[in-house]
Predict the 3D structure of the following.
Amino acid sequence: MPVGSLFLRGLSKKVWVSSLIYLILMLLIFFSTVNAQELTPNAPSDNEVNAIAKQLYCPVCENTPLDVCPTQACSEWRELIREKLASGWDESQIKAYFVEQFGDRVLATPPARGINWLVYIIPPLAFIFGGIVLFRAFRTWKKPAEMGDKNLAQPSSDEYINRLEEELRKL
Amino acid sequence: MMEDIETEITTAESNRTPESIRPRWGRIIAWLSVAALLALLFFGLLRTQQGPIGVGQKAPDFTFTSFDGKTYALSELGGKVVLVNFWASWCKPCEQEAGDLELAWRAYQTRGDVVFLGLAWTDTERKSLEYLEKFDITYPNGPDLGTRISQTYRTTGVPETYIIDRNGILRSVKLSPFLSLDEIKASIDPLLNE
């Protein structure tokens, strides 16, 4: 047998074994994936978890939304959201659960109750009040100028001021 | 002459119309509102700046339900020395003292006049239970729901331990993990002889 044919035969055997191993591995991966999907048919995606997580804040860190919080604790809370979603809970139920467990601090916006009402009432009231103050200020700024012009043209019609000025002149 | 002027001024003041008085009420209300808002902010800031409750004060009462469903109220533990430990499963320093706390509990349990209570702070139930199992913790533990108890005690983090005497007075606060069993005993033993 020629040396070349022996080499090819050896090579094809190696390729054949490698291909077989590769095929077995691919089949294993395929079936394990299919089984995992069958076990968790309603497994929530990361996007679904993060959609809720970004509306909640880490109860331990300062001002860090749960979806971007890098701590181990936040990772566990995101996992908790995933579990609740998989159990069929909706967004409002999950948020209520987090409030019950960790307090109002986990919410991005404070609930409108108790002293929290001030957060919703004060800014619009301050805006309206500021508008009124500005309106009144503009009016009063305009009046003295107009009155000043009139004062130059004619004496004051206020008897009290005329009398006062007259008495001051006498001093 | 001056008397005439004063009389005129008095007359002028008495002749003021209600329209000229009304804006003053507006100003008073506005200033009062600003003062009230500033007072609220002041007390809010004061509260947040306060540290944990002071040693020697009456320990605030609280009620919690343990992971196994039993309810505990501090007010019902009068006459006993109570150790309240705030912890979390994600807290590494908490692990440092977990074993020693359990050893201390086992040492005092038979006496009947010492109670250990563990409160899981901002933790998930599953992880809390895993933690309790890992350190074989047998004293009552439960979640600090809504972080209400930790807010009452004005905790600054975990682990924190509060030791309350038989009269319900807070006698010591530990804002870091206990480093040994002896340290825990040194905090409790003097209270047992009172």
Strands of chain B lie at 63-65, 71-73, 81-87, 114-120, 141-143, 160-164, 170-174.
